[in-house]
């Protein structure tokens, strides 16, 4: 695997989008370097090279080497590292600590706030840590995790959470956990929480329905298991056409000197401006 193999184009729009606003978080098997470049060129707001769940133990070292080489030869991405209780956590962080293209890490199986802090301390100062919460203990400690030094955003590992607790995939069964992450994120003054992925084989309609649940719970991002899900997630978690039209009309009227009216006017104006700012960031405002 040569250095020139890692010459890749990062989607310019996505590269310029702050990670706090990322809707789609695309997981890429770290043991498959040929998949790195297509993922980075896709419309995914953020790309995560996955060295944890996607990689068997026997391939961890090889996958780690491929990731570090890619991040040292021009690629930029997030990396999912193995949980702190595993034998691989320390080696992952040691290898990544000087990788120039590392945007941040996702910490698998986060259950305690100090796990995030210890992870951040092993990396270059300021490297953000996305806490992936995948267990009942993690959900119950979500507020403390959200407030821990180093925590950037919270993400929900739905499949492992379901295995841990025995709950179904029904949105009602997962509502408590999702709500806990949303409230914890607010208390910790973090960007919106990131929801778990749709199924690996989910089509566009299923992904959009999943996004409807995600948005209704107050979550603002979603993990993706394939490039084919990215555009549906971006669409599903963006302001809708009706919201854009409403924001346009309200902001235009305000600029033209509309009267304040009742007590709901200023909150509505603030919401319209937030929609406009998001639309501008996502390249939708003038679309």
Q: What value does the Rg take, in angstroms?
A: 19 Å
Which structural category do the helix and sheet elements fall into?
alpha/beta
Helix tally equals 13
Which band does the percent of strand residues land in? 5-15%
Q: For the largest sheet, list the strands in their spatial order.
A: 6-5-4-3-2-1-8-7
Cα-to-Cα separation, first versus last residue? 41 Å
**What is the helix/strand order?**
HEHEHEHEHEHHEHHEHEHHH
Unreliable residue stretches: 1-7
Q: How much is the average pLDDT?
A: 92
Helix content: 40-55%
Largest sheet: 8 strands, parallel
What is the tally of beta strands? 8
* Global geometry: globular
Describe the structure.
The chain is an alpha/beta fold and 287 residues long. It contains 13 helices and eight strands. The chain has helices at 12-16, 36-41, 60-72, 89-96, 113-121, 136-140, 142-146, 158-165, 171-187, 204-216, 230-236, 241-255, 265-281, and strands at 24-29, 46-50, 77-81, 102-107, 129-133, 151-156, 194-195, 221-224. An eight-stranded parallel β-sheet has the order 6-5-4-3-2-1-8-7. α12 (241-255) crosses α13. The protein is globular, with a radius of gyration of 19 Å. The termini are far apart. The relative contact order is 0.11.
